[in-house]
Request: fold
Amino acid sequence: MRDSYERLIIGNKKFAMEKRFDDPEYFKKLSLGQTPDYLWIGCSDSRVPANEVTNTSSGEIFVHRNIANVVVHTDLNVMSVVEYAVNVLGVKHIIVCGHYGCGGIRAAMGHKSFGIVDKWLRHIKDVYFKHHKELDAIADLDKRADRLTELNVIEQVRNLAKTKIIQRAWFDKKPIEIHGWVYGLNSGLITELNVEHDAKEDIEDIYRYEFD
Ligand code: CO
Reply:
């Protein structure tokens, strides 16, 4: 038990030493500030670390993770991250990254209660209901979960486009693109979904804000 904890501290010393060995100025440079081009909104799942799966380093991706990568417009946590990333950091790309084999998606498809997370997963049940004709027609449960994973990412990309933060940025001609990805746990590969949103693509009129 203690050993499994200690290895993190030992690991950290190794990490810091190796980075300094490769570049003595590494931490000094990082400590000056961050200018990431990307915001990553992904699942909390321990198997989908943003930097590792994109072969990027510290300082390159601003990261928000929650169960099943949901963008809820009343969630202060995710909205604060989006606002800071767009208005202060000036990210160029926002990536919503789901993953096949997502436990959150599977839980949302079922009828078991897990506690507080039920309320969070309810957003995914709503995605299911919106697409229930397509999903119910898929007999294989794994394939159905895979499709719900994709549809969930697509909905979360749309949820971003519905926010005032993003609409304001597009109105101000900031070149922000929103992408939807699904990561394959058993291949290590990312699939780009066909849901890119930028200022040219409109969402439904009812969700649009006016600016002057
Ligand atoms: Co997950």
Summary: The first strand starts at residue 38 and ends at 43. The first helix runs from residue 2 to 22. Residues 33-207 form a domain with the Beta-carbonic Anhydrase; Chain A fold (CATH 3.40.1050.10). Residues 43, 45, 68, 99, 102-104 surround cobalt (II) ion (CB under 6 Å).
